[in-house]
């Protein structure tokens, strides 16, 4: 074809020199490459994207499709350029070698990028499957990309040096220690990602809390070297992947899967307000619908226990009596069991903790029927609002450190003469 074209030019009366023939060949190659580029990217890829897009759009977004097709189109252009150079530059050794080297590097680069695009497409599709959400595919694919980049980089370097790639590969053994030092984080991250997946420790979408790194939010990405956490205050925290293996963290996903979120909060009761209940006070509390069964059962039990004591019951120390604190605890237990937003199939109790200088801690321990944060806080607030409102009906007082208002009230209760003397 080359000889026929130049023979036709000679027949047209054009005198061809060696330099002119080289310029014409290079110009024809460039012109053909430009035409091929326009045809591929203006017409072929547009039509291909339109046709295949109808089928692939179910799995892939248009951006990933276009990027993948473009990269393989550039690789095809490099192959056509290489074929044209071998046809038109035959006999021009230096020019042929230069264009062949450039074309081969071009083909390797865009084949590598095209492979990256295929991995990105597989990753995007796999995230829709349950298996893809549990496996650290992003970290694995990043590791594959790193290894592919190293191998292709070695081959490209061998092309530039004019040496066999085997010579460079044989020298990797001596550079193993250096490579392990340079790629320490990717290697540790890859191993950590596999361990996290194999032990079902962490997946994308889990609620992660790691106070050491200030992370408290949803895991949005598990990469080769870092894990990204979108905190609840909309900030992003990055954690080294291997730190999730070497350090401890809290995964709240179990709470979400269980379908119940724990309430564990105390109120402090003033110890000086705890006492036995009088008969009229018991009659008043018996009007409470949730408390009536408990009081009826307890009165029968105490009556059987105290009956043999006779006149000894005149002393309150003798016998058994209902206390306002115990009755209040029983009421809270019944209130939680009747609450529609509290899980009855999970742990539910109201317990008394060891007394402290701040009073007697009375702890509510239960689980809500929802794990949504806002709903959970609303249920918890409603329960304690009710607790604070009804505690006075049980003749109890909450412990509270004296405030400025309390001190001013105390100051106002002093006689006028004492206040004047204190001011003086």
TrEMBL record:
InterPro entries: LSM_dom_sf, MS_channel_C, MscS_beta-dom_sf, MscS_channel_2nd, YbdG. Residues 332-388 form the Mechanosensitive ion channel MscS C-terminal domain. It comes from the Bacteria. Pfam families: MS_channel_2nd (PF00924), MS_channel_3rd (PF21082). The chain crosses the membrane at residues 20-40, 72-93, 105-125, 137-160, 166-183. It is a multi-pass membrane protein. It is found in: Endomembrane system. Residues 185-253 form the Mechanosensitive ion channel MscS domain. Keywords: Membrane, Transmembrane, Transmembrane helix. PANTHER family: MINICONDUCTANCE MECHANOSENSITIVE CHANNEL YBDG. Belongs to the MscS (TC 1.A.23) family. This is Mechanosensitive ion channel family protein. It comes from Aeromonas bivalvium.
């Amino acid at each position: 074809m080359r000889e026929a074209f130049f023979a036709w030019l000679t027949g047209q009366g054009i005198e061809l020199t060696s330099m002119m023939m080289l310029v014409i060949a290079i110009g024809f190659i460039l012109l053909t490459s430009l035409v091929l580029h326009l045809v591929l990217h203006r017409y072929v890829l547009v039509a291909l994207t339109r046709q295949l897009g109808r089928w692939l759009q179910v799995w892939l977004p248009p951006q990933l499709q276009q990027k993948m097709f473009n990269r393989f189109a550039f690789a095809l252009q490099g192959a056509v350029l290489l074929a044209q150079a071998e046809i038109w530059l035959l006999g021009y050794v230096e020019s042929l070698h230069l264009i062949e080297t450039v074309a081969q590097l071009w083909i390797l680069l865009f084949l590598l990028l095209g492979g990256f695009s295929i991995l990105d497409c597989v990753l995007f599709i796999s995230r829709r499957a349950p298996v893809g959400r549990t496996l650290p595919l992003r970290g694995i694919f990043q590791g594959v990309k790193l290894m592919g980049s190293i191998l292709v980089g070695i081959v490209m370097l061998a092309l530039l040096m004019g040496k066999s790639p085997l010579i460079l590969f044989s020298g990797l053994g001596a550079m193993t220690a250096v490579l392990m030092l340079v790629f320490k984080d990717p290697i540790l991250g890859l191993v950590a990602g596999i361990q996290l997946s194999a032990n079902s420790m962490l997946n994308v979408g889990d609620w992660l809390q790691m106070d050491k790194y200030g992370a408290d939010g949803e895991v949005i990405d598990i990469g080769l070297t870092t894990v990204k956490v979108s905190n609840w205050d909309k900030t992003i925290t990055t954690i080294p992947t291997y730190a999730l293996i070497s350090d401890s963290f809290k995964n709240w996903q179990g709470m979400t899967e269980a379908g119940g979120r724990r309430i564990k909060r105390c109120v402090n009761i003033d110890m000086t307000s705890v006492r036995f209940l009088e008969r009229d006070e018991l009659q008043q509390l018996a009007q409470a619908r949730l408390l009536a069964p408990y009081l009826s059962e307890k009165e029968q039990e105490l009556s059987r226990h105290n009956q043999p004591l006779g006149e000894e019951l005149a002393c309150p120390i003798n016998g058994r009596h209902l206390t306002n604190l115990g009755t209040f605890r029983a009421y809270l237990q019944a209130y939680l069991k009747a609450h529609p937003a509290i899980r009855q199939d999970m742990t539910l109790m109201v317990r008394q903790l060891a007394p402290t200088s701040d009073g007697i801690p009375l702890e509510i321990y239960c689980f809500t029927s929802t794990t949504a944060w806002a709903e959970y806080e609303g249920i918890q607030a409603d329960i304690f609002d009710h607790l604070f409102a009804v505690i006075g009906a049980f003749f109890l007082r909450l412990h509270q450190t004296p405030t400025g208002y309390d001190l001013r009230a105390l100051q106002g209760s002093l006689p006028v003469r004492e206040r004047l003397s204190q001011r003086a």
